[in-house]
Every structure is written in structure tokens, then in C-alpha cells.
Specification:
Elements: H1 8-15, E1 20-21, E2 23-29, E3 34-39, E4 42-46, E5 51-57, H2 63-68, E6 69-76, H3 82-88, H4 95-99, E7 105-106, E8 112-113, E9 119-131, E10 134-146, E11 155-157, E12 160-162
Antiparallel strand pairs: 1-11, 2-3, 2-6, 4-5, 5-10, 6-9, 7-8, 9-10, 11-12
Length: about 170
């Protein structure tokens, strides 16, 4: 592979010019281990069948649980949920630690579902695709919960949490 003519910091700044939504991902593995993390690389993939994706670094403490997860839930966060996003982005804590003190209920297959988010999509892992230092996790969605709110979505832009203008 040819060496790029830029460094990782510049690449990160360039990618930061594109605002993204912020999600909270929770997961549960067969042994009961849980993951809880903040993800801003999320996209819908297919309507038929319903499928979404998100990306996560292989160095993430949540990666081992995600790799063996039986159920995954993606929560669309509102602009007033920055504290939750920051908590789930904290490194060095287990998923159970991040969920401690947070009101959640077990969803299909026991996956933690967070209240008061704008929407939830849950399902089973379809594929995990390794690419560089990250993986792309494709999820077959079999559960949705749409909770309309006048509150706008939390977003991330130029390395900071932001609220969309509109």
C-alpha cells in the first residue's frame, strides 16, 4: 500500500468536517457480558430486510463483547443526552460499569434498552467486517421503538458534541 501524503491527525480533522449523529450501542453476549458504547459511525443499510451498520475500533474495550454479542441495540440520542454519550465513551469501564445507575430495561434477548431516546433499533449481528483498525458491524433489525420527540438529535461535528441547526 502506498503511504498517504497526510497524517492521522489531518485525516481526523478532514473527516470531522462531516457532522454525524450520535448513538448509544448496547449489547449482550451469551455469557451475560454487556457492552455499552457511544458510536457516531451509524447508517441504515437496507429496508428489505431491515439492516443497519455501525463501526467500532478493534481496540475498544467493548469489541470482545460485540464480537460475541447475541443481541445489539442502537439508540438514537437526543441533544439533551450528551452526558450519556460521554459516559458510554469513557474508556476503562466495562459495559456493566457504564450501565450502572442508568435506568434501562431488558429488551429482546436481554439486550439493555435505554429509556427516553428518540428511537431504538435492535437485532442480531449479520456480519462483522474487519477493515483497518475498525470493524463494520452489520445488524439484522428485528425490533424497533420509535419515540418521537420535539428534541433534535445529538450530533458530533469538528470533534465536539453539537445540536443540529434547524
Amino acid at each position: 500500500m502506498t503511504q498517504p501524503l497526510f497524517d492521522a491527525a489531518e485525516f481526523r480533522q478532514v473527516c470531522g468536517q462531516f457532522p454525524t449523529g450520535v448513538t448509544a450501542v448496547t449489547a449482550i453476549a451469551g455469557d451475560g457480558a454487556m457492552a455499552a458504547l457511544t458510536v457516531n459511525s451509524f447508517a441504515s443499510v437496507s429496508l428489505e430486510p431491515a439492516k443497519v451498520l455501525f463501526c467500532v475500533g478493534t481496540s475498544s474495550s467493548s469489541f470482545p463483547v460485540l464480537r460475541s454479542a447475541e443481541r445489539i441495540a442502537i439508540h438514537i440520542l437526543r441533544q439533551d443526552q450528551e452526558d450519556l454519550a460521554r459516559r458510554f465513551a469513557t474508556s476503562g469501564l466495562t459495559g456493566a460499569d457504564k450501565l450502572e445507575g442508568i435506568a434501562w430495561s431488558p429488551g429482546p434477548g436481554g439486550v439493555p434498552l435505554l429509556p427516553d431516546t428518540s428511537a431504538v433499533l435492535a437485532g442480531r449481528t449479520d456480519q462483522i467486517i474487519f477493515s483497518g483498525d475498525h470493524v463494520i458491524v452489520l445488524v439484522d433489525v428485528d425490533h424497533v421503538d420509535h419515540k418521537p420527540s420535539p428534541m433534535q438529535a445529538l450530533s458530533f461535528y469538528r470533534g465536539r458534541f453539537a445540536s443540529p441547526v434547524g
